[in-house]
Amino acid sequence: MTLSEIYQKGAELLESKNLGFNLKGVETEFVLRNNEEVFKRYKFRQRAINSVEATTETRLLDVELQVPIIMSSITAPIPQIQQDGLLKVARALKEVGSMMSLGTPVPSNLKDLVEVGVPLIQTVKPFTDRSRVMQMISQAEAAGVSWVGVEVDAGQGTKIMDRPMVRDCTPMSVDELKEIKQRVTRPLVLKGILSPWDAERALEVGADVIVVSNHGAHTIDYLPHPLEVMDEIVRVIAGQIPIIVDGGFRRGTDVLKGLTFGAQAVGVGRPILYGLAADGEEGVKTVIKEMAEELKRAMTMTGVKSPASADKGIIL
Amino acid sequence: MTLSEIYQKGAELLESKNLGFNLKGVETEFVLRNNEEVFKRYKFRQRAINSVEATTETRLLDVELQVPIIMSSITAPIPQIQQDGLLKVARALKEVGSMMSLGTPVPSNLKDLVEVGVPLIQTVKPFTDRSRVMQMISQAEAAGVSWVGVEVDAGQGTKIMDRPMVRDCTPMSVDELKEIKQRVTRPLVLKGILSPWDAERALEVGADVIVVSNHGAHTIDYLPHPLEVMDEIVRVIAGQIPIIVDGGFRRGTDVLKGLTFGAQAVGVGRPILYGLAADGEEGVKTVIKEMAEELKRAMTMTGVKSPASADKGIIL
Amino acid sequence: MTLSEIYQKGAELLESKNLGFNLKGVETEFVLRNNEEVFKRYKFRQRAINSVEATTETRLLDVELQVPIIMSSITAPIPQIQQDGLLKVARALKEVGSMMSLGTPVPSNLKDLVEVGVPLIQTVKPFTDRSRVMQMISQAEAAGVSWVGVEVDAGQGTKIMDRPMVRDCTPMSVDELKEIKQRVTRPLVLKGILSPWDAERALEVGADVIVVSNHGAHTIDYLPHPLEVMDEIVRVIAGQIPIIVDGGFRRGTDVLKGLTFGAQAVGVGRPILYGLAADGEEGVKTVIKEMAEELKRAMTMTGVKSPASADKGIIL
Amino acid sequence: MTLSEIYQKGAELLESKNLGFNLKGVETEFVLRNNEEVFKRYKFRQRAINSVEATTETRLLDVELQVPIIMSSITAPIPQIQQDGLLKVARALKEVGSMMSLGTPVPSNLKDLVEVGVPLIQTVKPFTDRSRVMQMISQAEAAGVSWVGVEVDAGQGTKIMDRPMVRDCTPMSVDELKEIKQRVTRPLVLKGILSPWDAERALEVGADVIVVSNHGAHTIDYLPHPLEVMDEIVRVIAGQIPIIVDGGFRRGTDVLKGLTFGAQAVGVGRPILYGLAADGEEGVKTVIKEMAEELKRAMTMTGVKSPASADKGIIL
Questions:
Q1: Can you tell me the distance from the alpha carbon of C267 to that of D294, in angstroms, rounded to the nearest whole number?
Q2: Three-class secondary structure of residue D107 per DSSP
Q3: Chain C contact probe: residue of B123, B150, B222, B223 with most C CBs at under 10 A
Q4: Is B61 helix (H, G, I), strand (E, B) or coil?
Q5: Which residue in D126, D118, D60 sits closest to D86, CA to CA?
Q6: pLDDT, tens only, D57-92
Q7: Is the dihedral of CA A221, A226, A230, A234 positive or negative?
Q8: Quick check: C29 contacting D, CB < 8 Å?
Q9: Nearest residue on chain D to C30, alpha-carbon basis
Q10: Phi first, then psi: what are they for D65, rounded to 5°?
Q11: Among A20, A21, A25, which residue's Cα sits nearest to residue A223?
């Protein structure tokens, strides 16, 4: 199956299993539509002559990746899509040299996923009951994940269309996040940074990685797309820590745009769900491999030798 | 019912009762479409870290509101939608801590509405027969409304599509408005300010409140949306009197945009009609409560603590 | 019938009589679509307070008009729409205080039209056989028209979609136009000015009036709308002669936009055809009267007292 | 048949012969849609007065053309559209005074095409097996083509939607291209220049002609349209060698836009396929003749006397 076929078949299958609601966006779904539209604003300046075959390999902190494309935090719908869905996703991502990211609830089989050997991130929502937050992080660390994180943008929980999904969340303060940072033994990711203010606070907290994200259109309506705010966030971060970006990335060319804007890697959520629904473990592998192949073609023809060397000079 | 369901069901019910015409716009309906489109231009800069739970409570002159969302002046279609429609709306708005605004004709049961205890505004059109204008205002004051007002933008009456609705109106002069101001005993609202020129004249008249509005697309075609002219009006008003804004506000995030542009409160018209049509008194309550809930979520996640502290810094 | 109803019914009737082709545009029909879109770019700054009832009366050279809306040059399809179509149009325009404009072929009953008493313009295409041009102009003058003119923009004839309509035309030189100017006894109109270059040449020729026009999308594809080039043309003309503008004007608010951009009057073509098709003489009268009524409402609410006093200050 | 009819009938016929896939674009088809949209951004400033009949004749290096419209490199689908398709295209282009361009594979009947007498360009892809590249060029020179060329933008082969078409290509270096330049006896075309960087390298190579092109949307997604990058490429080339442009040109007015942006000629691909499919040799002739006729009309009415004298002064 090609990428387009997987996306189409995956969407149909999720719909037929009554899981399509998970793909929708908060309230008016503006964020979801905007996540699609933004990519159409940017085109590539070609460098056809003197270019050489690009590599998609890169390094995120202590993690070696074959591709600068990782999974965005999702847990809930995956076991409903296919039996052993999380294990299948883990195996697929391991095989293609990617990274897996899990959200809440923390999967009960987290240790099994760790054993697959894929580098794992476990992120946690800012539940109003803060003891629950720290408990989940400790549980993930004990299971052996590579990184842990807090979804700071879920300070009012999550919501799809008019239906609140996760409740009982409260925004975190810098002090609370600092305390978490002091207690964790693995790199700390802050997910859901979407303004220079929050980027500054992430540095103040001592975060090891940030994810620039609008939470896949599942928190607040009328949030911008990450690419619309990357420039000012990149200026604040100034290369001190790696930046991951997610939000509507579907094609290798989208990934290249994310890299040129200053991200070190790109997260994908719905594509993983489509791949799993359409063709199980194989489908997830195909999604990442096809996106990587598209990325490599586009990198080569724009003269970008590696993910780390992409910059906005190739964007028109 | 959720907000989307109320809006959809309300629109269907109004259509089935042959009241759908009231929802249409003047001549080409440009204003109506533009009222929808404008909100899509503005996105929010998120402040996820260090933010605290927002309050939607505010004060407009002498009126305490639980929510910065009030009713825009409408009378005519309401009794046709449900029996005792005006009373139901009044009770609903009272319960959610909002404010009611009535247009012409002045309802015959105005005193009953006052007795419900909801703060009331009665606005009057600039009928060419000026004695009728003053008589209506006096009648409203006698009934005990909180504020009275003149719909200055109805100087050529109202019109829906190609059909004139209210005729026999003539623009008011500053002198005529000053005379009204001298005679009223309650705060005077000037509704339908849509340019800095008229804002200056409103101050000259001594207006206590202005409503920046294009009259819900029921006067002249090709009027801008209030948000397109707010900046220059806010500069003229310079905090001397409160500003209410209306025009196509449907969601809590729309309200937050109105507040950041410098309004102290936002008016909603059609949403009240949808709520009443879809679910009576309960429907109106749900509309205001759901919008307020959305507003509170968005305020919290953008670091806006109260309606009065919203500013354009959070708009992208 | 309202304006919308006339436009819709007229279009349907023309279609059913196989006359719909006349309404289409040259080649890709870009010009036709753009003629519609341009009006949506401009909105009005309202002046609701202190405004007074506007008048639509105006004067174009020696012609007194009740409305600043005149007919654009059309002849061919009118007799096919209704028997005595031209006479009916003439009578309607006379009654509403407008002006009639005829294109080629010069109608055989031109004298009858003159006798109706409506001020008449006869414009002629730049046929390669120049003697034919002068002959047509002399014939029109002899019949008693008010003004004569040359459609300078038909230098390559006319074309609708892929079908050439009028052939055998060649662009006119300044010298040729000067010679015509010397020989005519009535004011000379140059129709189809669409750039400052041609505006300069029109002054050089000694034209008495220009019509800024893209010929209703019937000459060359990808011509701009007149409003897109009015500013630079108005700068060249600098008030020395009157400017008429046409191209997609359908509503009174469109007319007001034309006036604010610096035109003294606005031409309408297809609306006349729709009116005639939908309701004969009465239909044409209704079109002009309804547009004038809309214009008057919009003028009054923007503080424009008369067509001559409109300026771009009211455009947003 | 008119141009519109040929385009429509041609598209239908290609679809019915299962050849429609060749017309689609790479991955998301953004490039294909953008190739259509770009032309709508540019309008013409008319010069109706003092203009004279334009000529479409021009010269490209040593080639005299009746029209500044040539064929873009295509080979593969043509023999499948009609028997002797390539011969028919060659004869048609010869008759209308145009130029033929062939891509890979090099047609087996190349000598027969040369004998038709149409000026011929043979371009070759940068196959990883470089000996194959030089062999193809030598074969074309031996057959007697006018010019030879390299499709430098096919450095990652070609791809339609999700299906790779031509594989085994690698970007060429300046040194490799210089070596080819030294060995060829005919003018060398570099096709697929789309940035000032590659334009500089083309000059360094000593190319005799460049084709600014996004390869008809068949290489990399999100490439810009040539008109979006022409200004900066024209600045680099600075008149030293001729520039051909292709990408979505369908109408004579599109061609005029290409010329005003600084191209000496415009290439068309899909229009040739449509013409051949719809009406064989006659269809191809009609396509070029109709485009040329439209071009001449538009040139005349914008005061452009010849292809070489077009400049951006007429673009609005």
A1: 28
A2: coil
A3: B222
A4: coil
A5: D118
A6: 999 999 999 999 999 999 889 999 999 999 999 999
A7: positive
A8: no
A9: D40
A10: -120, 140
A11: A25
pLDDT digits (tens, 9 = 90+) for C154-198: 999 999 999 999 999 999 999 999 999 999 999 999 999 999 999
| C-beta of residue D155 within 8 angstroms of C-beta of residue A300 | yes
CA A49 to CA A310: how far, in whole Å?
Answer: 17
Which residue, among A35, A156, A191, A227, would best test binding to B if mutated, counting the most B CBs under 10 Å from its CB?
Answer: A156
Q: What are phi and psi of B20, to 5 degrees?
A: -60, -25
> B25-42 in b/e burial notation, b at 16+ Cβ within 10 A?
bbbbebbbebbeebbeeb
C206 touches chain D (CB under 8 A): no
Tell me which residue in D34, D174, D190 faces A50 most closely, judged by beta carbons. D174
Host H or E run for residue C3: helix C3-16
Q: Is C83 exposed, middle or buried (0-12, 13-18, 19+ CB in 10 A)?
A: exposed
- Which residues on chain C are in Cβ contact (under 8 Å) with D4? 161-162
Q: pTM to 2 decimals? A: 0.97
Buried (b) or exposed (e) across D101-128, using 16+ Cβ within 10 A? Answer: bbbbebbeebeebbebebbbbbbbbbbe
- The alpha-carbon radius of gyration of chain C (Å, integer) is 18
3-state secondary structure of B147: strand
For D96, D99, D241, the CA distances from D70, given in Å and listed in that order, are 10, 5, 17
Please tell me what DSSP assigns to residue C195.
S
pLDDT of the residue at C7 = 98
Give the model confidence (pLDDT) of B43-75 as tens digits. Answer: 999 999 999 999 999 999 999 999 999 999 998
Q: Which residue type is seen at A220?
A: I
Give kind and range of the element (H or E) at residue A30.
Answer: helix A30-37
Nearest to C233 by CA among C197, C187, C257: C197
Residues 174-193 of C with CB under 8 A from D: 174, 177, 190, 192-193
Distances (CA, A) of C116 to A26, C35, C90, C96: 65, 32, 7, 13
Q: Tell me the ipTM for this assembly.
A: 0.96
Among residues D193, D267, D184, D275, the alpha carbon closest in space to that of D230 is found at D193
Determine the distance from the C-alpha atom of residue C200 to the mean position of all C-alpha atoms in its chain, rounded to a whole number.
20
Which of B21, B166, B220, B231 to mutate against chain C (most C CBs within 10 Å)? Answer: B220
Q: What is the mean predicted confidence (pLDDT) over B141-152?
A: 98
8 Å CB contact of C49 and B173: yes
Closest chain A residue by Cα to residue D26? A294
Q: Is residue D229 within 8 angstroms of chain A, CB to CB? A: yes
d(CA A39, CA A266): 14
Can you spell out the DSSP letters for B217-230? G-SSTTPPPHHHHH
What value, to the nearest 5°, has the Cα angle with vertex D252 and ends D250 and D256? 110
What angle do the packed helices D196-205 and D174-183 form, to 10 degrees?
40
Q: Are A44 and A313 in contact (CB under 8 A)?
A: no
CA atoms within 13 A on the CB side of A226: 33
B202 touches C at CB < 8 Å? yes
Number of B/C CB contacts below 8 angstroms equals: 96
For chain C, what is the largest distance between any 2 Cα atoms, rounded to a whole number of angstroms? 58
Chains that touch D (3 or more CB pairs under 8 A): A, C
CB A214 within 8 A of CB A153: yes
Q: Which of A47, A49, A301 sits opposite D219 (nearest CB)?
A: A301
Rounded-to-integer distance, Cα D48 and Cα B145, Å: 66
- The tens digit of pLDDT for each residue in B181-234 reads 999 999 999 999 999 999 999 999 999 999 999 999 999 999 999 999 999 999
